[in-house]
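== Fold encoding ==
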Amino acid sequence: MSAPYPTCIVGFGKIAAGYANDPVMAKHYRYTTHSQVLLAHPEFRWTAVVDPAPDARTAALALKSTVEAAADTASLGEGRDAEIVVLAIPPGPGRLQALEAFPKARAVLVEKPLGRSLDEARQFLEACAKRNILVQVALWRRADPLFRELAGGRLAQQIGALQSGNALYGNGLHNNGVHMVDLIRMLCGEIAAVQAIGPASTPPGLPIPGDIQVDAALTLANGRNLFVSALDFSAYREVGLDLWGEAGRLSIFQEGLGVTHFARAANRAMSGEREIASDAPQPLASTVGEAFWHLYDDLARALQTGAPLCSPGASALVSETVIERIVESARAGTRRTVES
């Protein structure tokens, strides 16, 4: 069947709809939820939602009165004919059980992480592969136009060869930490080894059960090192990346709303030397407010033309492998190499 693709959302919580009610987010992000995209995107037709909570189903019907709202997949009618399944429920066996209810599924857009363990993540991908179901993972920075442009060569043009960098995250290594690991892989190259630094902690209220926070050093395949540092979000939020190259510096801050280039200049403290002009920022126009839209755009293009996905399951599994090696390093106190 050609587009628009009938689409069902399984799980109707914050990322499916709730974040759209945040007036502060609305000022900066045109699309923050799956439902916002599905209500507007011409390539998708939102037909059904599954959530056991009556309030969630009522919220879905308030957004689109014609959507089929069911408490579970077994109660679906025509919604079972969905070709796109949005899995906005936590990782676990419920994801595969839900997917089994959609015999016509051609693609799944799934929230990270893929599984509660690497084995579970692999099982999910293997089950999808057996049915020829495309897997797009909601690591949305991979769909962001500016970040894709940076990865395509603009970063190297602006900062030259990478020397060092630091990423910041909070609310859990498997939650926001994987976003930064994935962005590092996207912009800087593959990660060959990791070393946890200092003790791991488990602050109360982490969104993913069993998650931890820990600092770590990441060694890229080219031998350069980057550092990932955990923040306490009760003080303030930040999920960002600061990269220092031989010819400049690029800072991604305010969770991608701010992106700034700093050029190399003559050193003001010593003759014959150079510096990074950190007091002369050159802002780049952020595009993260529409990154969620582009995630769906990319999925539609892959279905229609066979083009590769921007955030395929296989790539997400590599990022989750890096996360698991950091966890292992924190437990053992040793450096861990990264392999699939």
Summary: The chain has nine helices and 16 strands. The radius of gyration is 21 Å. The first helix runs from residue 23 to 28. The chain has two domains: 5-137, 146-287+320-332.
